[in-house]
Specification:
Blueprint (H helix, E strand, L loop, with lengths): L9 H11 L17 E6 L4 E3 L2 E3 L3 E4 L6 E10 L4 E10 L6 E10 L5 E11 L4 E9 L8 E8 L8 H11 L2
Amino acid sequence: MTSPLRAPSLATLAATFLFFASPNGAFADGRADWPGYAWQQIRIAECLASGLTLQCPAYHQKWDWKRNQWVDIAITLDLSRGQLHLTQQLTDNDPHDDDYVCVTALAVDADGKDLVAHHQNWHIGPGQVIERSFIYRSDLRQKVAVIHIGSKQCRQGAGQDDALYAQVLARIHP
């Protein structure tokens, strides 16, 4: 015996509308601004403390799920200097495929407000490894609650999501 379909209640419809129609989108922490990214979340409580330095768990994710192509990110927060250190590495182990790869990291406070944003769109060729380190300055003391890191293959090529990054930075540094 099958049960009859029930229409959603008015409360369910209202909650769904408010969730997806909110000014910040489905995620109240800035991730909704970045369509198509595969996200991982690092809670600051998961980072290992050594004095006023926090070493966060590493990010390791494929940018193309069917190929041996990887994004690796290491993050350290230096609370005494108000610096977020980020080292990003792309590894393309596919000998026949090159891609544009978008990588975004957002450090957000407990209310979901972006405090630091990182975005790179790099072209990588077959068999290449690219690595760069970045330092972002912000008042990190007692503010950063979560770091979201997302990556994707940028099929639209160079510059994809760069204008979006500029908009996000403008909201952080008005």
